Structures are given as structure tokens and as C-alpha cells.
Amino acid sequence: MVYLRLSLARLIVFKYRLIIYIMGWICSAVICLSMESWLWLAFAAVVSDLLIISHAALAGPLSDIPTIHWLARWSRFYNLYIKYFHSISIAHYEAHTSRSNPGGYHPILRISPNEVSIMTTEGVKAVWGADFERSSWYGVFANFGKPNMFSSTSSRAHSSRKRIFASAYSKTAITQDRVQNIINTRVTKLVGFVGRQTSSDETSSGASGPVVIRNVLRALQADIFTAFAFADEAGTTFLDNLKNGRNTLEDLNMTAMDLFHDEKRDEFFFWESEKPFKYFASFLARNGLKSHETAQRWLMQLIRPYEAKARSKASIQSSEKSIKHFNCSVYDKLLLYKNPKTGNPLEWTERASEIMDHAVAGQDAVPAALEFIFRQISTHPDVQSKMRLELLTSLPLSAQDRTFAMIDSLSYLNAVVMEGLRLVDTISSYQTRVVPKEGCVISSCYLPAGTIVAAQPYLINRQPDIFPNPTMFDPSRWLLPREEYRNLAKSMWTYSSGPRSCLGRELSLAIIKTVLVDIYTRYKTTLLQDNRAQKRTWEGADFMAEVCFENILACEDGEWIERRLVGPSLLPATAQKQNQEPVRRRSILESGFSNSKSMPSGDNDCQEALTNPIHGPLAACPHFDTDPFAKAKETTAPRHTHRNLDPLMEYSEYIAPDQPIANGEQTTINVPPHQQVNAQA
Ligand code: HEM
């Protein structure tokens, strides 16, 4: 008790010490103290400060927690230093994992006198699951001078705002025709752009020159989000302006849209958000503030005409009807909202602040995630082949015949996306929560009220006891029986967790999966330039991956793919032909499974597979676990007897039961009925 009182007194004295000193000096000036007494007073103030800081550093409740650096006990400037000059995610990850510990890494580290960083799912559950309040750092995300859902620190303010529009982001809403049409039409434009790149090559080799994929994806995200948030016809059309070459933000006229990743802005974002600099932001971050203003003005160009149109009675009535049917856009929901107690609508600045925050939230996260996945797929040809095989054998070729439910049920595609999202670093800073007055315990360490707990997806997603070989891109870790998959997915923290987790999760997954389907059923990708050495992973137009696209029908395994696309009637012939073409089949196999681990030279089973005419080229190879023919032998799905069935018909009936599927079960591909029949033949 005595200790508690002392701590409280210390806190008050420490927090208000400046005011106490100033008052003391004013009093002493009034009673005309001598110069010597003044110096003694100043000396006493410095000593008392040092005593308080030393006590907190060496004997306070956080003193037993290992530190990221010895300076971190004494000052928050060490942490600010890495925030400004390095990648905070990489620096914290290295600190958590670099020192010996019984568990192999430190689940908790002190990063400044009053702040700890955690790398434990249990800790995240205790803090984010219990919805501890946010720190004041989030205030920087307010727009138009108004707070929004994201910037509000209190959980109450957050949940009352979220209730207005959360249903527009639900999976039910995202799978409705309105949103699916928006996504599909924009992705089709993206595919058209890639098509123009591959056909513009003078040699007509079917391969494109390097494409700075992030910029193109930024255009995609902006066009999808603005159409989704307002209305299809009210969205931006950046995709229509894509050119050959780098498509920089300036070329696309997108600098205002890309608020937090416009170079001018992110240089200053630090000064605007970190104490004590933020108090001098108007001086330190002048360009950053200017670019925030430009972005606000830019957004007004979308909001004004939309509001003017929505004010017409007919439009409001139809929105009111559709609000009940998940068919209403986010902005319509904001527009139609009335406070249940006062009956007042939101002010326009509140609506604008909210929508601007949502736009910013996904504007670089989705392109960064997709670019990272492209990069991984392009450098892992075995993954690319398996994924393409699944797409070509399980989905109708025409976008009109497929639904998002079909795409969503593909286990290998899902595994690739999950693994990409596990490793990608989309958020440029860590998330913080403040320990409430009861305190809390994480990894056996007591954290008193007011302690700031920091966590990052980059660290949580790399816990070696949950994700063995955590830095390795290995989609197969997600091919698990349903229950095990769910448990693993719960430990992944890319979208955060708890009531304030990412609202755009379903939208972003739908965009990412649709892009991968539409690109990888048509193109093979390779990485021209990796450009991984950056200060911050999301930063700088000059530091982005350049991807080359090659039409799959023009590439090595094109003939095989063509045969598969033509339909089932050719498949028995394929099996016959395989017998006459062992060399050709070998090249097909090797092109997809060229890494020595998947296809060891001299492996008898694989050699046998290459010449086995009965079950197809892939069935007997133990390294190939996605063979549709092998699956056909095991499947319990009803068998069709019509041999001339249209290859693209009735797929929806035969989409496999919900993914994921057990590792090693060789069942990641869903086999449509006609292929089962042919495999039997
Ligand atoms: C791969 C893409 C994305 C990733 C990795 C991602 C990640 C996150 C994370 C980690 C948070 C929590 C941040 C914090 O608490 O500090 C968050 C919040 C949020 N995200 Fe996303 N996000 C993505 C895409 C999107 C998209 C496309 C949208 C909307 C269009 C969106 C809208 C939001 C919103 C509104 C919040 C605030 C939620 C709240 O305060 O309750 N996100 N996101």
C-alpha cells in the first residue's frame, strides 16, 4: 500500500514536474531569492528528476523485463531513433530473437521506460482480446479536424461509430453481386493492361517487359475502394490511365490519393505523431501537413458530387431500402445515419474523416500484400505450378461462370495467400494499447496501469514455436485438417484481433484472391528485380519489385495447359500420348518442380511416374501432392457417366467441401466429375 501511494505520488510529481518547477521559480522570484538560491533550486530539480528516472529504470515494476537496448530503460529516444532511421519491425524482431532464452526468443521486451513490445499470442489475446484502450498516438489519423473510428482512443466511441457501417464490410456484403462486380471489372482492366504489355513486345514472345507491380496495384485498389465506398459509377479510373513503364504515382496523378505513402508525407508522418515533436508539427512537418490538406481536398472532389446526387429524394429512398440488404455502400450508411438519441445526422466533416481513413487504410496495405505475394510466387516456381494446376482444374475459365465462393474454397490458393499475408510487413509502425487501472500480466511479467503494450504482425506471425522455420515462405504449413488450420489461423495477426481488428479483411482477401486467379490462369511470372533492401518495406517508388509476365500458353508447359483447357475428351488421349512422349512430360514436370528438394535426381518413384502410362504422369510421384488424377481415385463424390460433359459445366456442385485439407493427404485439388471419369478410364 505504501509502495502504491509512493508510486502514485511519484507519478503525479513526475507528470506535472514542469509546472511545479515553474511555480516554484515564480514564487522564489516573488520573494526575491538570491542567485545562489536559484542555482540550488535548479540543481534540486535536476537531482529529483534523475532519482525518479533511475528508480523507474532500475527498480520500477518493468525493471525485470529484458530491454531492447540498455538506453531503453532510461529514455524513449532510442526507440524513436530506430523508428525514424530503421525498419521498426525488423529491429524489434531481431531484438526479440537475438538473445538466448529458454523458449528461443523473448516474448516480452522493454522498448522504452514505459513501453513493452510483445511477441506472444497469449499476450495479444490478453490485451487486444480484452480491448484495452488505444494510446493517444492514434490521434494523428483524424481528418478534417474530426476524429474517426480508427483515431478514437476510447472503446465506446469506437464501437458506436463502427456500428454504423460494419455490415458493409462483412463477408456477406463482400460476396454480393454489387461488390463482386466492382472487383471483377477492375481486375479485368488490370489483366487487360498485362495483356497489352505482353503483346506489345516486338518479338511477340508472349512475355512482358518489367512491370512495377505495386504502382499498378495501387491504381487497382483506389478504383475498387472508391467504387465500393461510394457507388460503381462514382469511383476513380486510375486503371484506365496505366501506361508502359513504371507508372509512378505522379504519372497516375495519384499522389494525393496515396496519402501516407506519398514520399513527402511519410517523411513527416513521424514528426506529426511522436511526442514531443508533434507539438511542433506545424514547423517540423510543414510539407506533411500540406500533403494531408491536398489529400483532403482531393477527397472532397469525390464527396461533393456524390452528396449532391444522394440528396435527391429518390436516391435516398432507394438507399434506405438497400441498407437492409447489404447492398448499400459505406458512404450511403454514413449519409443515412441518425443518432438514435438526438436524431441528428453526422456532420459532413465526420463523414469525410471516416471515409478518408478507410481509403488510407487499404491504399497501400493491399498493394503491398499483393506485391509481396507476387514476389514470392515468382521466386518459388514449384508453388506457382501447384497453384496454377489447382486454378486450371478447379475453376471455370470464364469469370462469368465462377463465384467468389468457388475461389474461396480453393485450398492451395488459400494457403499461398495465408502464407504471403503471414510474412508481409504492411503496417509501418506498431500497434499500441494502454494497460488499464487493474494492471495485467504477460509472460509472467506484471505490467502496471498506464504501461503501453506494443505488438506487430511482423513479430507475432514469426513465433518459431507456432510457425516452425518462421522466415521461410512455405504454403504447405496451411494444408491442415480443419480444426488444426483454424487454430493456426487464430495465431496469425496480419489483420490484428479483437473488436478493433481490420475492418477491410474480407474486402482485401477478395481482391487478392481474384487478382491471383485472373493472373495465374493466364500468365507465368518471374521476378526481374527484387529490391528488398529498403529502409522501410513499403517505402519509395524506386524500390519496388519488377515482375515480368509470360503468357502461359507460350511457355514451356503451354502445350500441356492447352490440352487441359480444351476439355475432358482429350484427356484419355493425353494419357496415351504420354507414353510416346516421356521427354516432353519430363520437361513439363521439371518446369513446375525444378527445385531439387521437390524433384531429387535419380528418385526412382519420380522416374517411374514419368513413364507410368496408367495413372498419368504425376500420380506416382510422391513429391507431387496435388495430382487431380490421384485425387480422382480417392474421391467419394458422385461419378458422372456422361463422357462428353462440358468441361466448364456444373463446377459449382463439385467444389470441394470447405478447405483446408489435411497435409500429405494429396487432396488439395477438387476434381470435377468428368475428370474423375476420365481418370478412371
Ligand atoms: C492486406 C490488407 C490489409 C491489412 C494487412 C490490414 C491490416 C490492418 C490492421 C493490422 C489493422 C489494425 C491497426 C491498429 O489497430 O493499429 C487494421 C485496421 C483497419 N483496417 Fe485494415 N488492413 C488491410 C486492408 C484494409 C482495407 C482494404 C480496408 C478498407 C478498405 C481496411 C480498413 C481498415 C479499417 C477501417 C481499420 C480500423 C478498424 C478499427 O479501428 O476498428 N483495411 N487493418
N-to-C CA distance:
82 Å
What radius of gyration results from the CA coordinates? Answer: 29 Å
CATH topology of the largest domain: Cytochrome p450
What small-molecule ligands were found?
protoporphyrin IX containing FE
Q: How would the global form be characterised?
A: globular
Tell me the helix content.
Answer: 40-55%
Helix-strand category? mainly alpha
Order of the strands making up the biggest sheet: 1-2-7-4
Key descriptive features of the protein:
single chain, 681 residues, mainly alpha, Cytochrome p450, 4 domains, 4-stranded mixed sheet, 9 strands, 50% helix, globular, binds protoporphyrin IX containing FE, iron
Q: Can you characterise this structure?
A:
The chain is mainly alpha-helical and 681 residues long. It has 4 domains: 2-58; 70-153 and 430-460, no CATH class; 155-426 and 464-553, Orthogonal Bundle (Cytochrome p450), CATH 1.10.630; 556-680, no CATH class. Helices cover 50% and strands 6% of the residues. The protein is built from 30 helices and 9 strands. The chain has helices at 2-15, 17-30, 35-58, 77-85, 88-98, 121-129, 155-165, 171-174, 177-199, 213-229, 263-273, 281-284, 286-310, 313-322, 330-336, 348-363, 365-379, 381-394, 404-408, 411-423, 457-460, 482-491, 505-520, 558-566, 571-580, 582-592, 604-611, 628-634, 651-654, 673-680, and strands at residues 108-112, 115-118, 211-212, 431-434, 440-442, 445-447, 452-455, 523-529, 546-551. A 4-stranded mixed β-sheet has the order 1-2-7-4, sandwiched between helices. It has a 3-stranded antiparallel β-sheet with strand order 3-9-8. A two-stranded antiparallel ribbon has the order 5-6. Helix 9 runs antiparallel to helix 10 (213-229), helix 17 (365-379) packs across helix 20 and helix 28 crosses helix 30. It starts with a helix and ends with a helix. Residues 533-542 and 567-681 have low confidence and may be disordered. The chain binds protoporphyrin IX containing FE (HEM). Protoporphyrin IX containing FE binds next to helix 16, helix 17 and helix 23. Residues 591-611 are annotated as: Disordered. The chain crosses the membrane at residues 12-31. This is Cytochrome P450.
